[in-house]
Amino acid sequence: MKTLSDQAVGTAHGKIILIGEHAVVYNEPAIAMPFMATPVEVIIEKINGGSVISSSYYQGLLQTVPDSLKNLKSLIQSICSDLNQPVDGLSISISSLIPPERGMGSSAAVATALVRALFAYFERDIAHDTLLNYVEISEKIAHGNPSGLDARVTSSASPIYYKKNSHFASIPLHVSGYLIAADTGMKGQTKKAVRDVARQMERASHQTLTIIKKIGHLTEEARLAIQDDHVELLGELLTLSHDCLKQINVSNDRLDHLVDTAIKNHALGAKLTGGGRGGCMIALARTAKQAKLIAHKLMENGAVETWIHALGENSNE
Ligand SMILES: C[C@@](O)(CCO)CC(=O)[O-]
Known about the structure:
Layout (H helix, E strand, L loop, with lengths): L1 E2 L3 E13 L10 E17 L5 E3 L4 E3 L8 H13 L7 E7 L9 H16 L6 H16 L5 H6 L5 E4 L3 E4 L7 E6 L6 H14 L1 H23 L3 H17 L5 H12 L4 E5 L6 E6 L2 H13 L4 E6 L7
Parallel strand pairs: 4-6
Antiparallel strand pairs: 1-2, 2-3, 3-6, 3-7, 4-5, 7-8, 9-11, 9-12, 10-11
Helix pairs in contact: 1-2, 1-3, 2-3, 5-6, 6-7
Bound molecules: (R)-mevalonate.
């Protein structure tokens, strides 16, 4: 983050949930990592007249943003009001390499970069907890009932173990393996999926709670597997958690097909990542060669983009 006289820049990055999505909304733990391959940058410059937003999906006045950007509009209004600044006179330019609506934390990362840019522009320091509170305003509009995980990881430089309202800790992800992330090319439906799981909790609370608790248990085991560098076990736990996510209906055919493809091609484990019903999946491989082969097979089987991340390296970037 830097401040120039008439310009300020805020940055953030995407995230990948290794294990624990959905269950984390119900106070179970999750493990997630920052995904530096997908950066976000917001640049704010001074202009005359009404504020404007420029992004790949909208260019125009802040006052007339489409519904998909209402979260950012509320955020800008709240911050300007809290800092006693006018909402006019801002040119806000958003650039992001995170594919939107793919469970990679796009909305939280854009909000994080925006909050940082606004505070830098108004030459004010911001405590991390204040940043998280602002991002939550935006995430509540975007997702309904966010756990706070996305806000934490997209603003953090380290992988984290996270429990809603109670606990978070940076954990080194020095496992000797490679993570492949693949985009199904389909928009995920985090908000709807989170709402549907909430309905299942109301209707079949015992059954759904049992699955949620099982995901929490698998996440705790994954934490130990990471600590002890048991990459094979970690892979098995990822696949078991995908089975749980299927049981609460947050997967879909395309995700299941990519998960099966990864497993057939010797991945140690695979699962959807993020909100599900589209978006992205991840797979774990022992070697870089296997990771490349799996990524290639995923592309042949419908993925539109893949990324490979060496877990033993850069995990504390
Ligand atoms: C599905 C979910 O667990 C992760 C979305 O990236 C929702 C949340 O944690 O707010």
